[in-house]
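WARN no homologs supplied; continuing
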Amino acid sequence: MDDHRQLRGAVCVVTGASRGAGRGIAEELGAAGAMVYVTGRSMESLAETAARVRAEGGGSRAVPCDHTVDDEVAAVFELVRRKHGRLDVLVNNAWGGYEDRGESVAFFDAPFFEQPLWRWDAMFGAGVRASYVSSWYGAPLMLEHGGLIVNTMAWAYGAYLGNVLYDTAKAATARLAVGIGEELRPHRVAAVALALGHLGVSESARYGGRAVVALACADDLLSKSGRSLTAGDLAVEYGFTDVDGTQPKPFALA
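OK structure emitted
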């Protein structure tokens, strides 16, 4: 994008930003000039993300947070409120359910009836509910001036994602954006679900970040609210590329 400081002065929160998609999104928000609060459970990894954001020219602060603990989430947004009094972009990327509890069941390879039941609560708690709770705390900081809430997800044009738990949780994440977007539209706050591709294979983590920046700067942002979008489609619409200059197409299952 030509003007790489188009979000100067914007305040952003990216959850689950210690690595992968969250880190890439935070870096791109920083490259656009934003102040980016990055959260997650590993302070060491978060500190590295924050340093990368600052290296891109943005401001950043690492805030350790377990997104299954409501009081810790509340503290993140209270910090933002005290420091800035507003929030412009919230990216809900925190996720869970992959924990190793000493069981031999492989997460993706095992059928649903062999999955431990705790995994449902872990994935929905650290994933879907975490997105809801962060939005619950973040939305009031957007009401006066508008903003953008992004729920990251996996999507393959309605195809089954290969695991009942994962597929259902990601579908719920997308549906969450529908309701939040509907209720916040009068306040000029958009909520979308953003599908990222096969990171490290079809695209880089920065590609999704460029999609978030493009949305945050878009004049037609509210027309996107409530929708499930892909980084690949947005790249074509808004004219950005991945770091290698290509425009990888949206991920689809064969």
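The longest strand covers residues 147-153.
OK
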